[in-house]
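HUMAN: Forgive my ignorance: could you write out one protein's sequence and C-alpha coordinates?

ASSISTANT:
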Amino acid sequence: MEQLFKMSERGSSLSQEFRAGLTTFLAMSYIIALNPLILSSAGVPISATITSTCFGAGVMTILMGIFANRPIALASGLGINSMIVVATTSYCDGDWHAAMGVIFVEGVVILLLVLCGLREAIMDAIPVSLRHGISVGLGLFIAMIGLANAGIINGDGATLVSLGDVTSPSFILGVISIVATVTFVALGVKGALLLGILVAVVLGIPLGLTAMPAGVVSLPDFSSFGAPFQADQAGVIGLAKVVTTPTLLILAFSLMMSDFFDTMGTAMAVAKQGEFLTEDDNVENMREILVVDSCAAWMGGLVGASSITSFVESASGAADGGRTGLTSVSCGLLFILAAFFAPLIAVVPGAATCGALVYVGYLMLSEAAEIAWGDLLEGLPAFLIVAGIPMTYSISSGIGLGFIGYVVVALATGQVRKIKPLMWVAAAAFVIYFLVS
Protein backbone atom coordinates (compact mmCIF):
# COMPACT_ATOMS: atom_id res chain seq x y z
CA MET A 1 0.00 0.00 0.00
CA GLU A 2 2.77 2.41 0.97
CA GLN A 3 4.81 1.57 -2.14
CA LEU A 4 1.85 2.14 -4.44
CA PHE A 5 0.46 5.36 -2.98
CA LYS A 6 3.52 6.92 -1.25
CA MET A 7 1.48 8.21 1.68
CA SER A 8 4.43 8.88 4.01
CA GLU A 9 6.30 10.75 1.29
CA ARG A 10 3.32 13.06 0.85
CA GLY A 11 2.66 13.51 4.56
CA SER A 12 -0.53 11.50 4.67
CA SER A 13 -1.92 8.36 6.30
CA LEU A 14 -4.51 5.65 5.74
CA SER A 15 -7.10 7.33 7.97
CA GLN A 16 -6.49 10.71 6.37
CA GLU A 17 -6.90 9.30 2.85
CA PHE A 18 -10.07 7.35 3.67
CA ARG A 19 -11.56 10.40 5.38
CA ALA A 20 -10.78 12.56 2.35
CA GLY A 21 -12.31 9.94 0.07
CA LEU A 22 -15.52 10.00 2.09
CA THR A 23 -15.58 13.82 2.00
CA THR A 24 -15.24 13.80 -1.79
CA PHE A 25 -17.89 11.11 -2.16
CA LEU A 26 -20.42 12.97 -0.03
CA ALA A 27 -19.72 16.20 -1.93
CA MET A 28 -20.41 14.35 -5.20
CA SER A 29 -23.15 11.97 -4.11
CA TYR A 30 -25.90 14.21 -5.47
CA ILE A 31 -24.99 12.96 -8.97
CA ILE A 32 -26.35 9.50 -8.08
CA ALA A 33 -29.86 10.92 -7.87
CA LEU A 34 -29.55 13.84 -10.29
CA ASN A 35 -27.99 12.12 -13.32
CA PRO A 36 -30.78 9.50 -13.62
CA LEU A 37 -33.43 12.21 -13.28
CA ILE A 38 -31.89 14.21 -16.13
CA LEU A 39 -31.23 11.28 -18.44
CA SER A 40 -34.70 9.85 -17.87
CA SER A 41 -35.98 12.80 -19.93
CA ALA A 42 -34.13 11.25 -22.86
CA GLY A 43 -35.77 7.88 -22.26
CA VAL A 44 -32.89 6.19 -20.41
CA PRO A 45 -34.34 3.85 -17.72
CA ILE A 46 -33.74 5.33 -14.26
CA SER A 47 -32.70 2.02 -12.69
CA ALA A 48 -30.15 1.46 -15.46
CA THR A 49 -28.78 4.99 -15.11
CA ILE A 50 -28.32 4.64 -11.36
CA THR A 51 -26.22 1.55 -12.00
CA SER A 52 -24.20 3.09 -14.84
CA THR A 53 -23.66 6.32 -12.88
CA CYS A 54 -22.35 4.48 -9.81
CA PHE A 55 -20.27 1.85 -11.59
CA GLY A 56 -18.90 4.30 -14.18
CA ALA A 57 -17.86 6.78 -11.50
CA GLY A 58 -16.53 4.05 -9.22
CA VAL A 59 -14.39 2.23 -11.77
CA MET A 60 -12.89 5.36 -13.34
CA THR A 61 -12.20 7.00 -9.97
CA ILE A 62 -10.39 3.87 -8.80
CA LEU A 63 -8.35 3.84 -12.02
CA MET A 64 -7.46 7.49 -11.47
CA GLY A 65 -6.18 6.64 -8.00
CA ILE A 66 -4.12 3.69 -9.18
CA PHE A 67 -2.60 5.10 -12.38
CA ALA A 68 -2.29 8.81 -11.54
CA ASN A 69 -2.04 8.46 -7.73
CA ARG A 70 -3.82 11.76 -7.23
CA PRO A 71 -6.99 12.59 -5.22
CA ILE A 72 -9.25 13.24 -8.22
CA ALA A 73 -12.69 11.63 -8.50
CA LEU A 74 -14.80 11.30 -11.62
CA ALA A 75 -18.52 11.00 -12.37
CA SER A 76 -21.09 11.91 -15.01
CA GLY A 77 -20.67 15.60 -15.73
CA LEU A 78 -23.53 18.04 -15.32
CA GLY A 79 -24.25 20.01 -18.45
CA ILE A 80 -23.18 17.29 -20.83
CA ASN A 81 -25.91 15.00 -19.50
CA SER A 82 -28.40 17.74 -20.31
CA MET A 83 -26.97 17.83 -23.83
CA ILE A 84 -27.79 14.12 -24.09
CA VAL A 85 -31.46 15.02 -23.63
CA VAL A 86 -31.24 17.75 -26.29
CA ALA A 87 -29.36 15.47 -28.69
CA THR A 88 -31.83 12.63 -28.22
CA THR A 89 -34.91 14.74 -28.89
CA SER A 90 -33.49 17.13 -31.52
CA TYR A 91 -30.88 15.19 -33.48
CA CYS A 92 -31.26 11.46 -32.79
CA ASP A 93 -34.98 10.93 -33.50
CA GLY A 94 -35.55 9.93 -29.88
CA ASP A 95 -32.79 7.28 -29.84
CA TRP A 96 -30.72 7.82 -26.70
CA HIS A 97 -28.35 5.05 -27.78
CA ALA A 98 -27.17 7.30 -30.63
CA ALA A 99 -26.71 10.19 -28.18
CA MET A 100 -24.48 7.94 -26.07
CA GLY A 101 -22.64 7.13 -29.30
CA VAL A 102 -21.82 10.84 -29.61
CA ILE A 103 -20.24 10.72 -26.14
CA PHE A 104 -18.32 7.58 -27.09
CA VAL A 105 -16.90 9.20 -30.23
CA GLU A 106 -15.82 12.44 -28.52
CA GLY A 107 -14.16 10.44 -25.76
CA VAL A 108 -12.14 8.38 -28.23
CA VAL A 109 -11.01 11.55 -30.04
CA ILE A 110 -9.93 13.20 -26.75
CA LEU A 111 -7.96 10.08 -25.82
CA LEU A 112 -6.13 10.19 -29.16
CA LEU A 113 -5.29 13.87 -28.60
CA VAL A 114 -3.85 13.03 -25.19
CA LEU A 115 -1.80 10.12 -26.50
CA CYS A 116 -0.27 12.31 -29.21
CA GLY A 117 0.59 14.95 -26.58
CA LEU A 118 -1.61 17.78 -27.89
CA ARG A 119 -3.66 18.23 -24.73
CA GLU A 120 -0.57 18.60 -22.53
CA ALA A 121 1.10 20.87 -25.07
CA ILE A 122 -1.86 23.26 -25.00
CA MET A 123 -1.70 23.36 -21.21
CA ASP A 124 2.00 24.24 -21.39
CA ALA A 125 1.20 27.08 -23.81
CA ILE A 126 -1.16 28.80 -21.36
CA PRO A 127 0.35 31.96 -19.78
CA VAL A 128 0.86 31.77 -16.02
CA SER A 129 -1.59 34.58 -15.33
CA LEU A 130 -4.35 32.69 -17.11
CA ARG A 131 -3.59 29.60 -15.03
CA HIS A 132 -4.06 31.65 -11.87
CA GLY A 133 -7.25 33.05 -13.37
CA ILE A 134 -8.56 29.53 -13.90
CA SER A 135 -7.98 28.69 -10.23
CA VAL A 136 -9.75 31.85 -9.03
CA GLY A 137 -12.63 31.35 -11.45
CA LEU A 138 -13.04 27.77 -10.31
CA GLY A 139 -13.01 28.90 -6.68
CA LEU A 140 -15.93 31.23 -7.38
CA PHE A 141 -17.64 28.48 -9.39
CA ILE A 142 -17.29 25.90 -6.60
CA ALA A 143 -18.66 28.35 -4.04
CA MET A 144 -21.50 29.24 -6.41
CA ILE A 145 -22.41 25.56 -6.80
CA GLY A 146 -22.53 25.16 -3.03
CA LEU A 147 -24.64 28.27 -2.50
CA ALA A 148 -27.00 27.33 -5.34
CA ASN A 149 -27.41 23.77 -4.02
CA ALA A 150 -28.59 25.25 -0.72
CA GLY A 151 -30.84 27.85 -2.32
CA ILE A 152 -28.83 30.64 -0.71
CA ILE A 153 -28.59 32.16 -4.18
CA ASN A 154 -30.98 31.62 -7.06
CA GLY A 155 -32.59 33.37 -10.01
CA ASP A 156 -35.85 35.13 -9.17
CA GLY A 157 -36.91 35.85 -12.74
CA ALA A 158 -36.23 39.58 -12.48
CA THR A 159 -32.48 39.14 -11.95
CA LEU A 160 -29.99 36.47 -13.00
CA VAL A 161 -28.85 35.87 -9.41
CA SER A 162 -30.45 36.95 -6.16
CA LEU A 163 -30.56 36.01 -2.50
CA GLY A 164 -32.76 33.02 -1.81
CA ASP A 165 -35.58 32.67 0.69
CA VAL A 166 -33.89 33.05 4.09
CA THR A 167 -36.77 31.18 5.78
CA SER A 168 -36.58 28.11 3.55
CA PRO A 169 -35.26 24.88 5.14
CA SER A 170 -32.65 24.55 2.40
CA PHE A 171 -31.28 28.05 3.02
CA ILE A 172 -31.14 27.40 6.76
CA LEU A 173 -29.37 24.07 6.31
CA GLY A 174 -26.86 25.66 3.92
CA VAL A 175 -26.02 28.29 6.52
CA ILE A 176 -25.71 25.60 9.20
CA SER A 177 -23.33 23.70 6.92
CA ILE A 178 -21.15 26.78 6.41
CA VAL A 179 -21.10 27.67 10.13
CA ALA A 180 -20.30 24.08 11.16
CA THR A 181 -17.50 23.76 8.59
CA VAL A 182 -15.89 27.09 9.49
CA THR A 183 -16.14 26.29 13.20
CA PHE A 184 -14.43 22.92 12.79
CA VAL A 185 -11.71 24.50 10.62
CA ALA A 186 -11.14 27.29 13.15
CA LEU A 187 -10.82 24.73 15.95
CA GLY A 188 -8.27 22.77 13.92
CA VAL A 189 -10.40 19.61 13.93
CA LYS A 190 -9.21 16.94 11.51
CA GLY A 191 -11.77 16.15 8.84
CA ALA A 192 -13.48 19.51 9.31
CA LEU A 193 -15.11 19.47 5.88
CA LEU A 194 -16.47 15.94 6.33
CA LEU A 195 -17.80 16.75 9.81
CA GLY A 196 -19.49 19.84 8.45
CA ILE A 197 -21.35 17.71 5.90
CA LEU A 198 -22.34 15.09 8.47
CA VAL A 199 -23.63 17.69 10.94
CA ALA A 200 -25.76 19.19 8.18
CA VAL A 201 -27.10 15.76 7.16
CA VAL A 202 -28.21 15.06 10.75
CA LEU A 203 -29.74 18.51 11.28
CA GLY A 204 -31.45 18.15 7.93
CA ILE A 205 -33.76 15.54 9.48
CA PRO A 206 -35.86 17.96 11.60
CA LEU A 207 -35.79 20.44 8.71
CA GLY A 208 -37.37 17.83 6.45
CA LEU A 209 -34.47 17.74 3.97
CA THR A 210 -32.81 14.51 5.06
CA ALA A 211 -35.67 12.13 4.37
CA MET A 212 -35.90 8.53 5.44
CA PRO A 213 -34.74 6.30 2.58
CA ALA A 214 -37.37 4.49 0.52
CA GLY A 215 -35.34 1.35 0.99
CA VAL A 216 -31.83 0.19 1.74
CA VAL A 217 -30.72 -2.25 -0.95
CA SER A 218 -31.27 -1.98 -4.71
CA LEU A 219 -30.09 -4.50 -7.30
CA PRO A 220 -28.00 -3.16 -10.21
CA ASP A 221 -29.53 -2.86 -13.69
CA PHE A 222 -26.91 -3.23 -16.42
CA SER A 223 -29.26 -2.84 -19.38
CA SER A 224 -27.69 0.46 -20.55
CA PHE A 225 -24.18 -1.02 -20.79
CA GLY A 226 -22.98 -1.08 -24.40
CA ALA A 227 -25.51 1.62 -25.35
CA PRO A 228 -23.68 2.92 -28.47
CA PHE A 229 -23.71 -0.62 -29.91
CA GLN A 230 -27.38 -1.26 -29.21
CA ALA A 231 -29.83 -0.95 -32.10
CA ASP A 232 -33.10 0.95 -32.38
CA GLN A 233 -36.39 -0.59 -33.51
CA ALA A 234 -35.25 -0.38 -37.13
CA GLY A 235 -32.12 -2.35 -36.29
CA VAL A 236 -29.71 0.60 -36.74
CA ILE A 237 -26.84 0.71 -34.21
CA GLY A 238 -26.49 4.01 -32.34
CA LEU A 239 -22.80 4.45 -33.19
CA ALA A 240 -23.54 3.93 -36.89
CA LYS A 241 -25.91 6.90 -36.81
CA VAL A 242 -23.22 9.12 -35.31
CA VAL A 243 -20.49 8.42 -37.88
CA THR A 244 -22.90 8.92 -40.78
CA THR A 245 -24.62 12.10 -39.52
CA PRO A 246 -22.65 15.39 -39.88
CA THR A 247 -24.82 17.16 -37.29
CA LEU A 248 -23.95 14.56 -34.66
CA LEU A 249 -20.25 14.79 -35.51
CA ILE A 250 -20.39 18.58 -34.99
CA LEU A 251 -22.12 17.95 -31.67
CA ALA A 252 -19.32 15.55 -30.73
CA PHE A 253 -16.78 18.32 -31.46
CA SER A 254 -18.70 20.75 -29.24
CA LEU A 255 -18.78 18.26 -26.36
CA MET A 256 -15.10 17.46 -26.91
CA MET A 257 -14.14 21.12 -26.40
CA SER A 258 -16.11 21.18 -23.14
CA ASP A 259 -14.47 17.98 -21.86
CA PHE A 260 -11.05 19.05 -23.12
CA PHE A 261 -10.78 22.19 -21.01
CA ASP A 262 -13.05 21.32 -18.07
CA THR A 263 -10.59 18.68 -16.94
CA MET A 264 -7.65 21.04 -17.27
CA GLY A 265 -9.30 23.54 -14.94
CA THR A 266 -10.45 20.88 -12.49
CA ALA A 267 -6.99 19.31 -12.30
CA MET A 268 -5.43 22.68 -11.49
CA ALA A 269 -8.01 23.36 -8.79
CA VAL A 270 -7.50 20.00 -7.08
CA ALA A 271 -3.71 20.21 -7.49
CA LYS A 272 -3.70 23.51 -5.62
CA GLN A 273 -5.53 22.00 -2.64
CA GLY A 274 -3.73 18.64 -2.84
CA GLU A 275 -0.29 20.26 -3.06
CA PHE A 276 0.77 18.74 -6.38
CA LEU A 277 0.99 21.98 -8.32
CA THR A 278 4.62 22.81 -9.15
CA GLU A 279 6.28 26.21 -8.66
CA ASP A 280 5.74 27.04 -12.34
CA ASP A 281 2.04 26.13 -11.99
CA ASN A 282 2.18 22.78 -13.76
CA VAL A 283 0.12 19.84 -12.48
CA GLU A 284 2.22 16.82 -11.50
CA ASN A 285 1.22 13.54 -13.19
CA MET A 286 -0.90 15.53 -15.64
CA ARG A 287 -0.43 13.05 -18.47
CA GLU A 288 -1.72 10.16 -16.36
CA ILE A 289 -4.65 12.29 -15.17
CA LEU A 290 -5.56 13.24 -18.73
CA VAL A 291 -5.32 9.67 -20.01
CA VAL A 292 -7.68 8.34 -17.33
CA ASP A 293 -10.05 11.27 -17.77
CA SER A 294 -10.14 10.75 -21.54
CA CYS A 295 -10.86 7.05 -21.12
CA ALA A 296 -13.63 8.02 -18.71
CA ALA A 297 -15.35 10.10 -21.40
CA TRP A 298 -15.83 7.22 -23.81
CA MET A 299 -16.51 4.84 -20.93
CA GLY A 300 -19.42 7.07 -19.91
CA GLY A 301 -20.94 6.71 -23.35
CA LEU A 302 -20.26 2.99 -23.40
CA VAL A 303 -22.13 2.28 -20.14
CA GLY A 304 -24.90 4.80 -20.80
CA ALA A 305 -24.00 7.26 -18.02
CA SER A 306 -23.20 10.30 -20.22
CA SER A 307 -19.63 11.62 -20.27
CA ILE A 308 -17.69 10.79 -17.11
CA THR A 309 -15.27 13.55 -16.18
CA SER A 310 -13.11 14.80 -13.31
CA PHE A 311 -15.25 16.54 -10.69
CA VAL A 312 -14.23 19.91 -9.29
CA GLU A 313 -15.78 18.80 -5.98
CA SER A 314 -12.66 16.62 -5.63
CA ALA A 315 -11.02 19.77 -4.28
CA SER A 316 -13.07 19.33 -1.10
CA GLY A 317 -11.40 15.99 -0.40
CA ALA A 318 -7.97 17.41 -1.23
CA ALA A 319 -8.62 20.32 1.12
CA ASP A 320 -9.60 17.77 3.78
CA GLY A 321 -6.20 16.09 3.57
CA GLY A 322 -6.32 13.91 0.45
CA ARG A 323 -2.83 13.68 -1.02
CA THR A 324 -2.67 10.36 -2.88
CA GLY A 325 -4.66 8.10 -5.15
CA LEU A 326 -5.94 6.22 -2.10
CA THR A 327 -8.43 9.06 -1.67
CA SER A 328 -9.73 8.30 -5.15
CA VAL A 329 -9.75 4.54 -4.60
CA SER A 330 -11.78 4.85 -1.39
CA CYS A 331 -14.18 7.29 -3.07
CA GLY A 332 -14.53 4.95 -6.05
CA LEU A 333 -15.32 1.98 -3.84
CA LEU A 334 -18.06 4.01 -2.15
CA PHE A 335 -19.57 4.76 -5.56
CA ILE A 336 -19.65 1.07 -6.42
CA LEU A 337 -21.22 0.24 -3.06
CA ALA A 338 -23.77 2.99 -3.70
CA ALA A 339 -25.05 1.04 -6.70
CA PHE A 340 -26.39 -1.50 -4.20
CA PHE A 341 -27.49 1.09 -1.61
CA ALA A 342 -28.68 3.91 -3.86
CA PRO A 343 -31.84 4.64 -1.84
CA LEU A 344 -29.71 5.17 1.27
CA ILE A 345 -27.10 7.40 -0.41
CA ALA A 346 -29.72 9.54 -2.11
CA VAL A 347 -30.94 10.98 1.21
CA VAL A 348 -27.89 13.29 1.51
CA PRO A 349 -29.33 16.75 0.65
CA GLY A 350 -27.38 19.04 -1.64
CA ALA A 351 -27.52 21.79 0.96
CA ALA A 352 -25.41 19.65 3.32
CA THR A 353 -22.35 20.04 1.05
CA CYS A 354 -22.63 23.83 0.90
CA GLY A 355 -20.13 24.53 3.68
CA ALA A 356 -17.39 22.31 2.20
CA LEU A 357 -17.74 23.83 -1.27
CA VAL A 358 -17.85 27.43 -0.02
CA TYR A 359 -14.75 26.87 2.13
CA VAL A 360 -12.83 25.34 -0.80
CA GLY A 361 -13.87 28.31 -2.94
CA TYR A 362 -12.48 30.64 -0.28
CA LEU A 363 -9.15 28.80 -0.28
CA MET A 364 -8.81 29.03 -4.05
CA LEU A 365 -9.36 32.79 -4.17
CA SER A 366 -5.86 33.30 -2.76
CA GLU A 367 -4.59 32.81 -6.32
CA ALA A 368 -5.96 36.26 -7.24
CA ALA A 369 -2.92 37.85 -5.57
CA GLU A 370 -0.64 36.11 -8.09
CA ILE A 371 -2.21 37.78 -11.15
CA ALA A 372 -0.47 40.88 -12.57
CA TRP A 373 -3.59 43.04 -12.65
CA GLY A 374 -1.59 46.12 -13.67
CA ASP A 375 -0.56 44.48 -16.95
CA LEU A 376 -3.40 44.65 -19.50
CA LEU A 377 -2.25 41.54 -21.36
CA GLU A 378 -1.97 39.52 -18.18
CA GLY A 379 -4.85 40.99 -16.17
CA LEU A 380 -7.76 41.42 -18.60
CA PRO A 381 -7.79 37.86 -20.03
CA ALA A 382 -7.43 36.49 -16.48
CA PHE A 383 -10.40 38.62 -15.45
CA LEU A 384 -12.46 37.23 -18.35
CA ILE A 385 -11.76 33.72 -17.03
CA VAL A 386 -12.44 34.66 -13.39
CA ALA A 387 -15.75 36.27 -14.31
CA GLY A 388 -16.60 33.96 -17.19
CA ILE A 389 -16.49 30.60 -15.40
CA PRO A 390 -19.12 31.37 -12.73
CA MET A 391 -21.18 33.77 -14.86
CA THR A 392 -21.55 31.33 -17.76
CA TYR A 393 -21.79 28.41 -15.31
CA SER A 394 -19.27 26.62 -17.53
CA ILE A 395 -15.57 25.99 -16.96
CA SER A 396 -14.81 25.58 -20.67
CA SER A 397 -16.75 28.70 -21.71
CA GLY A 398 -14.94 30.84 -19.14
CA ILE A 399 -11.55 29.51 -20.24
CA GLY A 400 -12.52 30.13 -23.86
CA LEU A 401 -13.32 33.79 -23.17
CA GLY A 402 -9.92 34.22 -21.55
CA PHE A 403 -8.03 32.52 -24.38
CA ILE A 404 -9.73 34.60 -27.05
CA GLY A 405 -9.27 37.73 -24.92
CA TYR A 406 -5.54 37.05 -24.59
CA VAL A 407 -5.09 36.89 -28.35
CA VAL A 408 -7.17 40.05 -28.90
CA VAL A 409 -5.31 42.07 -26.25
CA ALA A 410 -1.92 40.85 -27.54
CA LEU A 411 -2.86 42.01 -31.05
CA ALA A 412 -4.15 45.36 -29.77
CA THR A 413 -1.01 46.05 -27.70
CA GLY A 414 1.50 44.87 -30.29
CA GLN A 415 2.66 41.86 -28.24
CA VAL A 416 1.86 39.17 -30.79
CA ARG A 417 5.20 37.44 -30.18
CA LYS A 418 4.02 36.46 -26.70
CA ILE A 419 1.28 34.27 -28.17
CA LYS A 420 2.52 30.70 -28.44
CA PRO A 421 1.43 28.76 -31.56
CA LEU A 422 -0.90 26.45 -29.65
CA MET A 423 -2.63 29.44 -28.03
CA TRP A 424 -3.58 30.54 -31.54
CA VAL A 425 -4.95 27.04 -32.18
CA ALA A 426 -6.86 26.93 -28.89
CA ALA A 427 -8.35 30.43 -29.38
CA ALA A 428 -9.45 29.56 -32.93
CA ALA A 429 -10.98 26.30 -31.70
CA PHE A 430 -12.93 28.19 -29.06
CA VAL A 431 -14.29 30.62 -31.67
CA ILE A 432 -15.58 27.62 -33.64
CA TYR A 433 -16.88 26.05 -30.43
CA PHE A 434 -18.90 29.15 -29.52
CA LEU A 435 -20.29 29.40 -33.05
CA VAL A 436 -21.47 25.79 -33.28
CA SER A 437 -22.65 25.36 -29.68
